[in-house]
Amino acid sequence: MARRKKVYEGKAKILYEGPEPGTLIQYFKDDSAPTEAEATPAAVEGKGVLNNRLSEFFMNGLNSVGVPTHFIRRLNMREQMVRMAEIIPLEVVVRNFAAGELSERLGIPEGMPLPRPIVEYYLKDDRLKLPMVAEEHIVAFNWATQQDLDDIIALSLRVNDFLSGVMLGVGIRLADFRLEVGRVWDGDFMRLIVADEITPDSCRLWDMRPVVDRGDGQPLAEPGPLADVYTELARRLGVLPSNVTHPMKPTLIN
């Protein structure tokens, strides 16, 4: 078997050259992004298998409602074929509820619904720790055009509507998520597509189903993080592989 050429390796995925022109093979690893206390990613057994299935589920759903993505098809338990794209060097974050850095930065109580979805941009540069940037920075430094930004906002809000509805249907609240967007060309025509992945690694999810307090047996009304986000989300969406049985207790919040 010929050795595949590695194109890129990140914290959670490896990209290889694809079997067809203009394609890549995306391999999902079990590694998680490191926390502030860790120097290297921590491995979570079986996470790559579940994230492969979950990203396939969400990307197929987006394609079916007319939101273009890089996803072509799943190849096996850990790999999928995707379309090659020129990635815009931004992480696009859509926020529906105050949480994490937004609460810390602006002093807004954790869990407060936002008056409308907020779209933020972060420069994809780990050396600079992904700084937040304004539209003026993006256009001035030619990371994207103003038309790109208008299209990114429209694309991101459509993804938000789809994901929020899917999550709500299985008792989960989508607090926020991040996207990567890429450029592809069809002849002389350029368009933007959703790239990278959509998995629990890129979403902040809160469980809306009541949790029974073991002390008095009464249900707790407040939503909280899923105890086992990868397995539980895959189970609720009906995409849990039957041969994945492992105890996992990852943290959800990045």
The biggest beta sheet reads: 8 strands, antiparallel
Number of extended strands: 15
- Cα distance spanning the termini: 38 Å
Low-confidence residue ranges: 35-40, 245-254
Globally, the shape reads globular
Work out the radius of gyration.
19 Å
Strand content: 25-35%
User: Could you give the order of the helices and strands?
Assistant: EEEHEEEEHEEHHEEEEEEH
General description of the model:
- With 254 residues, the protein is α+β, with helices and mostly antiparallel strands.
- The protein contains five helices and 15 strands.
- Strands 6, 7, 8, 9, 10, 11, 12 and 15 form an eight-stranded antiparallel β-sheet that branches. It has a five-stranded antiparallel β-sheet with strand order 1-2-3-5-4, with helices on one face.
- The longest helix has 24 residues.
- The radius of gyration is 19 Å and the shape is globular.
- The termini are far apart.
Features:
254 residues; 31% strand
Q: What is the topology?
A:
Blueprint: E1 6-9, E2 13-17, E3 23-28, H1 47-64, E4 71-74, E5 79-83, E6 86-87, E7 90-97, H2 100-106, E8 113-123, E9 132-133, H3 135-140, H4 146-169, E10 172-186, E11 189-195, E12 203-207, E13 211-212, E14 219-220, E15 224-225, H5 229-237
Antiparallel strand pairs: 1-2, 2-3, 3-5, 4-5, 6-10, 7-8, 7-10, 8-9, 10-11, 10-12, 12-15, 13-14
